[in-house]
């Protein structure tokens, strides 16, 4: 394998390889979530068209979020620095997610009160600002204001525990890594059975699942931590050069097949468990392809550029969909061609807003605050002492630190 990355948590000095395919995949995952939420806007007046659209995108939301959680663990472990400290790591993650979260929360709050005419709930707002909303079993708390931010509540737990988790997983012997991954998968499949013992079993019709199961299986930070741990273990498997059961093409086919059949499983399992292994194998296979210099469609420059705005796309898409629908005709549905055109228009608007936020907020904030000045000075001094070193970064002309496929 070329460009062998340092082992996550091993403390070796080798720098990790770039993983452009994983950055490109982020855009696909964010797009899946966009079209999943678009389905609930009811754009299609024709029942047959609406049914076809729902069948195509229904699994997309659950799949996209699961992909992000697994990828988050994988990428953070892959790019872990030998000289990193917990405060430095948390600083980078804070400035990666919080400025955009706070900005979209303020926009959502203003729109909720001024446009939708809803009352402002201070207690729920505080939970949203502090990213604690997913610890609440109340679906209205988790889904209020900018509803998609519930996943950041899970990520906050992931980041807090990552330094400890990385140390623990780094102690697993290489030949036992697949067994550890299998144990995590077994726990994920066991979670829905535990959810049945929770008291609130009132149904949520749109997903045919109880409120308690929806929370515990899909949105509870402690159970979604398993996805994150799975990603960390997979990063070690790839970094250690352990054999993968599937190549990239086969893993992609498995993921597509699982996406198609997942809705036929019980709801409490198709939300997370059914897609866990296919998504994990796809991420691992794509990373292996990147480290071996094998290009894929996802690693093309255009896909990488789109992947870079995926965080902003994720945080803004539901606001654009909901309030865009209000602007174009609140509660209205249209013929198939006009509905498709409306979808395309709102997706393009979301992309534009996402690009602006990435360019004007996310990237400048990370450049200014993502690394302490003291560390920046040390890095500059070390680079000056070492002299010019030619570095080739696939699909980018920007500094390597800005191009890590870090995500929420």
From TrEMBL:
Keyword Transmembrane helix (UniProt): yes
InterPro entries registered for this protein in UniProt: Acyl_transf_3_dom (IPR002656), Acyltransferase_3 (IPR050879)
Record GO terms (molecular function): acyltransferase activity
Transmembrane feature ranges: 21-40, 60-79, 100-120, 140-165, 177-195, 215-239, 246-265, 271-289, 309-328, 340-361
Domain Acyltransferase as annotated: residue spans: 21-358
Keywords for this protein: Acyltransferase, Membrane, Transferase, Transmembrane, Transmembrane helix
Domain of life (superkingdom): Bacteria
Protein's name according to its UniProt entry: Acyltransferase
Organism: Streptomyces spongiicola
UniProt lineage: Bacteria, Bacillati, Actinomycetota, Actinomycetes, Kitasatosporales
């Amino acid at each position: 394998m070329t460009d062998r990355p340092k082992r996550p948590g091993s403390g070796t000095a080798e720098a990790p390889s770039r993983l452009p395919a994983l950055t490109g995949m982020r855009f696909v995952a964010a797009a899946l979530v966009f079209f999943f939420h678009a389905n609930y806007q009811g754009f299609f007046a024709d029942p047959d068209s609406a049914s076809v659209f729902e069948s195509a995108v229904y699994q997309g939301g659950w799949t996209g979020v699961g992909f992000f959680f697994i990828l988050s663990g994988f990428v953070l472990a892959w790019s872990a620095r030998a000289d990193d400290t917990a405060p430095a790591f948390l600083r980078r993650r804070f400035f990666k997610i919080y400025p955009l979260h706070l900005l979209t929360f303020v926009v959502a709050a203003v729109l909720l009160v001024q446009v939708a005419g809803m009352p402002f709930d201070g207690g729920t707002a505080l939970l949203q600002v502090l990213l604690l909303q997913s610890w609440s079993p109340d679906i209205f708390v988790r889904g209020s204001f900018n509803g998609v931010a519930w996943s950041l509540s899970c990520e906050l737990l992931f980041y807090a525990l990552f330094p400890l988790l990385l140390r623990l997983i780094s102690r697993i012997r290489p030949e036992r890594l697949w067994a550890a991954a299998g144990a995590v998968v077994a726990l994920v499949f066991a979670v829905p059975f535990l959810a049945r013992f929770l008291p609130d079993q009132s149904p949520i019709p749109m997903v045919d699942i109880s409120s308690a199961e929806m929370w515990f299986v899909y949105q509870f930070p402690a159970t979604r931590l398993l996805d994150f741990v799975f990603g960390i273990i997979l990063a070690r498997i790839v970094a250690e050069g352990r054999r993968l059961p599937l190549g990239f093409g086969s893993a992609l086919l498995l993921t597509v097949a699982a996406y198609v059949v997942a809705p036929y499983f019980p709801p409490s399992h198709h939300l997370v468990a059914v897609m866990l292994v296919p998504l994990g194998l796809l991420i691992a296979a794509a990373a292996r392809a990147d480290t071996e210099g094998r290009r894929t469609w996802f690693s093309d420059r255009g896909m990488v550029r789109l992947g870079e705005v995926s965080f902003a796309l994720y945080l803004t898409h539901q606001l654009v969909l909901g309030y865009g629908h209000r602007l174009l005709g609140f509660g209205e549905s249209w013929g198939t061609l006009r509905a498709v055109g409306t979808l395309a228009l709102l997706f393009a608007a979301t992309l534009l807003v996402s690009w602006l936020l990435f360019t004007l907020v996310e990237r400048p904030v990370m450049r200014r605050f993502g690394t302490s000045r003291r560390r920046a000075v040390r890095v500059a001094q070390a680079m000056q002492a070492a002299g010019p070193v030619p570095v080739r970064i696939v699909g980018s002309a920007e500094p390597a630190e800005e191009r890590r496929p870090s995500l929420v």
